[in-house]
Design brief:
homodimer; about 950 residues; 36 helices; 33 strands; eight-stranded parallel β-barrel; eight-stranded mixed beta sheet; about 15% strand; about 45% helix; alpha/beta
């Protein structure tokens, strides 16, 4: 005869049936209660009915397994023995709580019943025991109400409908002219118990059950039932929790923090969840129940106060927190209750924390030898590093401003960090205002490449249109600027130089007024809030803080050091200017993965030469204009090569459609026509002829260089001349010339030939030897599909996943705002594909391109330079398909480094797991 | 000792060393000369030096194989024997021609030398033999000139430079005051020979070679040398002729058609190359050489005249043409010469023909049992069928108009056929003018969906902008309208209602003037030219001609009957209206593969309801507008279901961006605002809010139906109500609802649910049972990549290769005009991918989509509904990947049917070939 299946796990005293790693069977709460018992912490005794019972319950028309009853009774007996009281006993009654407890936390979604075991008889025993009739009757009426609501189903389904018990309670207070529950006496509560029971009889036709065992089974059934309530179903769907996990039910002896002044209750963390510091952090209230701490009606005291008031209890609690911290090797979130001078631990779980704290604690725990470096790296979500890098508002100051009604609007958190400044409504104004020393927030309906200088001059950028990958957002992140994008309620009136807000009548922000934007939350706030650069930035970039003075920086350095040793992917940066490149190196970049030459076209008077080139009618005119640009581009490249000091630099030849360089307003057109000495009509007709229906799919990328080879020629010359000049100074240079928007190997060949010819001419002229590569961006589906052909010529691939996402999805990121948010919200697609690389579609093409490319050229260098290069899960994907490097904006370099390291650790762990599985299969076979 | 390698192939008398299928070794000319000898035709004796000698020559520093000389001398001996004359003999000299002859025809690209063997001695023998000193000296001076130009290299490389011999000739004429060569006497020619020789001595430093053998080897070397001249290299590149094929050299006895009135020369075809009729067709001249017939200085006589003048010769010649036609089973192009009463055949090759003739001859030859049906089908390029379907100008009338300077411009031949009509510069004007009974040519800078009704009312459409797949071209082809697109030299002034032409100063075409456009050639001609529908159209569509009265129709019917029996692909049509559908059925369509519901939105007052729907602020307003549209759409679908009479009908739900339905001019906006009873500002802001940067990648396709499910719901209802109503009449209905622009299976699911819900509601209401399918268009790379997921729900795929080409290439067809023509011209890509399916990129995705789709749903129905569905090589591709059907515009249905049949024949042939190869390998192994 086989052993009976175990459905009930006892915990209490010094030994529990379960343990922490049984979350699947016992739920998170049950497993941790058992674990606390096992490590010697005082936990009110109880037992857990397993999730298997829940599964059985739903698979068998809401019946329990036949063994359950006996197991529950046996466990209950043990609880009675441990607690020295008896369930339903008229003299010494044991009271119980019944709580849900699923594998994953589902806070507030399922039902709880407290104070089980009370009836007209046992309440008398409670009065005697506590000498507190008001407490006893209050507990009793709460129990009847909770039981009526939860077990007997009197709680209204629609939250706008009234709870019948609350109606009775309100009536009672009104009768007596009371405002607060605290004004009610023991007698009032006693009356309420009767009135509640009458209401139950009326609504359900049955009496309230006085039998404790009936109360117990009713409550257990209600908790299992709540697994399938609507709230829980929706929550699981949203959080992707499988339905068949089921919930466990925890039945536990009640302890009371509100039994008098020698009782109390509190919540605490084993370390500071905000800073990560290894100090005890929490708060408590005397003579109170758990809900009082959370409700905010009384202000709780900091845990340090407990050390003064109850040094003995505090010492005990602090000892427990140390045990827990060390045992779990994690910051734990704990709940405790003091009942008449005795400390009970009611719950523990891994605590939530800020990114800042996560990093600090992970690094500290490695140093404390609690966890390995690999474990530390797995514990930090790479994006949490942002909190170490971004300028920040003072939390309190911001909260006050918002409470004071200063919150203007909320947009997309497109460029993390905090910035305050004067509103400028044009890039030009931004430059002027910044020149006079004022901090500036550039506010535009949307930005265009012409605004680059103004954006650079500003502290932050705020736009009314555009998404997370709009021009403003992309450039801001690359520049490390704060950015709030797509703030649709802002109505920006360029003519009247003011901003109004759709849902805030009467509020007007004029150009020059101060506003503050939080790019980590998307908040736009009126007025000025103080900001400061993070310590890491102070050490690395502004050099205003010394390493040894900043423990935060030291933490960062330790973590990044471990990450760098682990990762296989190289991390490069997207940078167009020497200062960006220098910042990126400070953040650990190992080269430039994308240097966009067109951004250089907007500096100084260059734009005039660019425009001259564009409106040229003849090759000669065009060449003359290009000759003006050559020395300027060369100078830029020299700066970048020097800044990168031997790291590889991938330079992309001209990419955007030419019309992006031309002016649009009548006034600007007139000015340009005058400057170029051509008629306004001619210039207009040129601009008109460059108009495109779908610029994204138009005359851009290598198509420009194929129609106008002289442009590529000039750029190649500028690159190689700069490389030779810098090389002559004894600085190593590794240029990698990248041809954009290639769809066919023939396009690549034509451009490659021009580049190689320029290289051989320039190196001959300068008498310098250069190592360089010529490769391409893979950003069209056709390039991925024909990657083998392209790799027969291209020496490297860099996946331009921004454009590849646009073409693969047939989705313009400038136009997707109308429907993409709805798509993500309704889970038609799991993520915004411009933020997180779409593995199923775009990723499949990236994989195909990489494999086909390497089939033709085994040593093909492969990287990614889309925005995804700095997005952690996308970096993981890049690692999984064995790319050589990712490239991202300077302020995401550290994030990418960490993500790359995590990818390695995860891979190793999953390999270990499968080896283990294979071994255990083998050994079980041997048996 | 092995046999000596054979480099020289003799032909002459009754037996040749070679034969027709040795074109690779002997070149086309040599092989056919040998074949004519073998079938008993009189050919001047000669020999062919093989292409292997050419290959050897270039592989061995321009040396010949050592065996060559002896083989040439032996062959020459045989020629002398057969012709009864001796090369270089002072009394009875044999004269030779030396001509190139490659495997593929390269007309005029390589060199020829005639009259070899003449010198001061042999010319005397020629005089005696012909008694015609002028002929003899003229031949001699021509030889010296040709030899000097070709062999000695005096011909100027730059064609602007003067030929030194022509200079001397001109001087001679000027001296004597002559205008024509015919005025020169024997004595003058004799002088010229001397003067030419002097010039040669001056320029080259050497004497002109009198030795005939030296002349022969010099000429052979020159012909081999000309294989690598610049012209030939470029020609080969353009025509993809491999360089290593090499050329053969044909050395042949000269015969002269200019030896007097009993001599003559001519060219002819074994059947009529224009109509295909089985009659002798050609022309000839007495006392003339080949070049005289071609040069046009004398007007040649029709071959029928020969029957009167020389009945014996004609009879003989007619007999030869019959032998050739029957032997080659092809219409042959022949050259003949009569020398002093004796007929010689000089050349034969497969002749060029019109599409019309190609079809007629292929069908006739099957009936004559010369070829099989499969062979006939392979001989007709599907596009040649166009000539049987399109209205046509009278060729003579058009030629006269063009010679009279009436050619206005040339654009793209976007919609084949011919049309004359009055110019209308707006769709509205076109409708009005057409209503008054005038034929109309709609002339627009470009067309938009709003112009549909005006296009429908016009005979033809002419645009200044846009390519082969512009809106105008697409719609025109679908409507079967004549269209010339992208005629860039036209300057269309809407305000002044006139057209001027860039390179034709002073010419103005006013609205209302007649013009004629030839959509098969792209010509735009001033004035009116008569047109007529083709006989096939008269029988099938206009029903103005009976089958039995039209042999042309009967030919068409035979051919299509054979094609239909062979093909495996079904052929459907793209049709939006009942009349289009009916035409398509007449052309053999087996269903509708794409019915675009949005075109229905422009009819009558519907556009107002559509616009109401678009500007609606609330769901209720939108539903009210949709309610107005429902009965109208239902009516359309009823018409289509009735016309298709049981054939499947694929209906695509709303696809284009909404802004396409809104007006743009201030006046129209004001009118619409008034009609909708909203403010102009509001309407403008709505229009503005719908503006997109890249409409191709924007808010369109199923994205519309996902954001506004009520649109899909209305359309599904209209479809199913129509289906039920028509079904109730006893007509079979097979609706296939197609969801456009799906990129993820979740999008499909959402739309599918709406469609299936409507279906179940409507069929319940109507009490009718319906079979229907729900499927999707695969037009995004992501759909192809995730086709397995999509096919888990979709019951059919239709590849929308127009959009798939745009997204795969990242190429907007509206904007590609700037660079795509250059790409095709420079062979960066082999074809315009919007015309011919790009197999390497787009095709690979189509293949992947089909395979992945069928992996998830083995019986998935797969078709194509892009423009490529009517393009022959693309149809072949669709067959090769085992699609179920192609769908194309009504007027391309027949073309697709033929292309589908050809695909089968080609496949079978290539299988036979590989079986044969495998067998011969096997048998050679056995040895």
């Amino acid at each position: 005869m086989g052993k009976q299946k175990k459905y009930v796990y006892f915990f209490g005293g010094k030994k529990a049936d379960g343990k922490a790693d049984m979350k699947g069977l016992l739920g998170g709460k049950g497993a941790n209660l058992a674990e606390m018992v096992n490590i010697g912490l005082p936990v009110p005794a109880g037992f857990t009915i397993t999730t298997e019972v829940c599964t059985y319950y739903y698979a068998n028309k809401k019946k329990y397994p036949k063994e359950l009853k006996a197991q529950v009774l046996a466990a209950l007996k043990k609880v009675e023995d441990h607690m020295g009281a008896k369930f339903g006993d008229p003299k010494n009654p044991l009271l119980l709580s019944v709580r849900s407890g699923a594998r994953a936390s589902m806070p507030g979604m399922m039902d709880t019943v407290l104070n089980l075991g009370l009836n007209d008889v046992t309440v008398q025993a409670l009065i005697e025991k506590t000498n507190n009739p008001r407490f006893a009757y209050d507990s009793y009426r709460r129990f009847v109400q909770m039981y009526g609501d939860v077990v007997l189903g009197l709680k209204p389904v629609d939250k706008h409908d009234e709870d019948p018990f609350e109606v009775i309670l309100d009536n009672k207070k009104r009768q007596h002219g009371f405002k607060l529950d605290t004004e009610l006496t023991a007698e009032h509560f006693k009356e309420l118990v009767e009135e509640f029971k009458t209401a139950i009889k009326e609504k359900t036709g049955s009496d309230f059950p006085d039998d404790p065992m009936e109360q117990l089974w009713g409550s257990v059934g209600a908790v299992f039932g709540s697994w399938m309530n609507e709230r829980a179903i929706i929550y699981r769907k949203l959080n992707r929790i499988p339905e068949d996990w089921g919930t466990a039910v925890n039945v536990q002896a009640m302890v009371f923090g509100n039994m008098g002044e020698d009782s109390g209750t509190g919540v605490a963390f084993t370390r500071d969840p905000a800073t990560g510091e290894n100090v005890f952090y929490g708060e408590y209230l005397f003579n109170a129940q758990g809900e009082d701490v959370v409700a905010g009606t009384r202000t709780p005291l900091p845990i340090s106060k407990l050390a003064e008031d109850e040094p003995q209890i505090y010492k005990q609690l602090d000892q427990y927190r140390k045990i827990l911290d060390k045992h779990y090797k994690e910051m734990m979130d704990i709940e405790f209750t003091i009942q008449q001078g005795k400390l009970w631990m009611l719950q523990c779980r891994v605590g939530k924390r800020t990114g800042f704290a996560a990093i600090r604690m992970a690094v500290d725990m490695v140093k404390e030898k609690l966890i390995t470096k690999e474990e530390a790296i797995l514990r930090i979500e790479p994006n949490q590093l942002n909190q170490l890098l971004r300028p920040i508002f003072d939390v309190e100051e911001k909260r006050k401003a918002i409470e004071g009604g200063k919150l203007l609007a909320k947009g997309l958190n497109a460029g993390p960090g905090a910035a305050s400044g004067k509103v400028a409504l044009s890039a030009h104004d931004a430059e002027i205002m910044a020149a006079s020393g004022d901090p500036v927030i550039l506010v535009r309906i949307e930005t265009s490449p012409e605004d680059i200088k103004g954006m650079d001059a500003s502290e932050g950028i705020l736009t009314a249109r555009g998404g997370m990958t709009s021009h403003a957002a992309l450039v801001a992140r690359q520049m490390g600027k704060v950015c709030v994008a797509g703030c649709g309620t802002l109505q920006i009136n360029y003519r009247e130089r003011k901003i109004t807000v759709e849902d805030k009548d009467g509020i007007t922000i004029n150009e020059g007024d101060y506003i503050s934007i939080d790019g980590s939350t998307g908040e736009v706030i009126m007025g000025k809030l103080e900001t400061k650069p993070s310590e890491v930035v102070q050490v690395l970039i502004t050099k205003t803080l010394k390493e040894e003075e900043s423990p935060i920086y030291q933490t960062y350095r330790s973590l990044m050091g471990w990450a760098d040793k682990l990762r296989k992917l190289k991390v490069r940066t997207n940078a167009d200017q020497p200062d960006q490149a220098a910042n990126a190196i400070a953040f650990g970049a190992e080269g430039i993965g994308l240097c966009r030459t067109e951004h250089m076209f907007f500096g100084g008077d260059r734009i005039m030469s660019v425009r001259k080139m564009i409106v040229s009618d003849t090759l000669e005119e065009r060449k003359a204009a290009l000759d003006e640009l050559l020395p300027l581009q060369r100078e830029d490249f020299e700066g970048i090569f020097e800044a990168m000091n031997g790291f590889p630099v991938t330079i992309r030849t001209l990419d955007p459609p030419l019309h992006e360089f031309l002016p649009h307003s009548q006034k600007e057109v007139e000015e340009l026509a005058a400057a170029l000495n051509i008629s306004v009509e001619k210039l207009k007709s040129k601009i008109e002829s460059l108009h495109e229906f779908n610029p994204m799919l138009g005359f851009r990328g290598c198509r420009l260089g194929i129609l106008y080879p002289e442009i590529t020629e000039m750029q190649a010359r500028a690159i190689f001349e700069a490389a030779c000049n810098v090389s002559a100074k004894g600085i190593k240079v590794k240029p990698e010339i990248m041809i954009p928007l290639v769809g066919d190997v023939n396009e690549f060949k034509l451009q490659e030939d021009i580049v190689r010819k320029a290289a051989s001419e320039v190196t001959k002229e300068k008498g310098v030897k250069l190592n360089y590569l010529v490769g391409t961006m893979i950003e069209l589906p056709r390039a991925a599909v024909t990657a083998d052909e392209i790799a027969s010529r291209a020496e490297f691939f860099s996946f331009g996943t921004n454009d590849l996402t646009q073409t693969t999805f047939g989705l313009s990121r400038d136009d997707a705002g109308k429907f993409l948010p709805l798509y993500v919200q309704n889970e038609i697609i799991p993520n915004d594909p411009f933020e997180v690389l779409d593995r199923k579609g775009v990723g499949e093409l990236v994989k195909m391109g990489t494999e086909k490319g390497r089939s033709a050229r085994p040593n093909l260098k492969v990287g990614i330079c889309g925005e995804h290069g700095g997005e952690p899960s996308s970096v993981e994907f890049c690692h999984s398909i064995e790319m050589d490097y990712v490239s991202c904006s300077p302020f995401r370099v550290a994030i990418a480094r960490l993500a790359a390291a995590r990818a390695v650790v995860k891979e190793t762990n999953s390999k270990k797991k499968s080896v283990k599985k294979a071994k255990s299969k083998k050994s079980s076979k041997k048996k």
